[in-house]
Amino acid sequence: MKKLLVVIFIISILTVGVYATTYIGGTFQKEIGGYGRNFIGGRVTFGNMLTMDVEGSLSLSNPNPMYSTQIYTYVNFSIPISNFEIYAGFSPTLFFFNGNFSTYEFQQHGYLHGGVAAKFQKIRIYGEIFKVLYYSPIQFADVSVIEVGAQIGF
Question: What is the pTM (predicted TM-score) of this model?
Fold first, then answer.
């Protein structure tokens, strides 16, 4: 039963992406607290009210993708208001360090994010904040990340 629900959920997300606008663009992220690192990345957004973001980022302090790569697969709920949208979502941690997938990171925490986007014809500009959510015990990490980005839709 769980597998069936997962399959239905994935098909729903992909269907929303096929019949709605898709945006592709770049991001800049800044850690608030922690190491204060900066990241650059790319993002693809599918959908309108129920959206899915696939994003990858690299640290500017060591931009070698084999050193550290993070991939986020957010499932978001959006509230469109005229040319703006307010959204929030969750992603598990998909973290690669020295070319290896970190099962520890995947099992320990995920990311919650929320933001505001402005849409001007085919251009989408957004700003958001995200926090690490530890699963057990449920708590937020001290480090927050602020992100800004721009995308073009088709």
Answer: 0.81
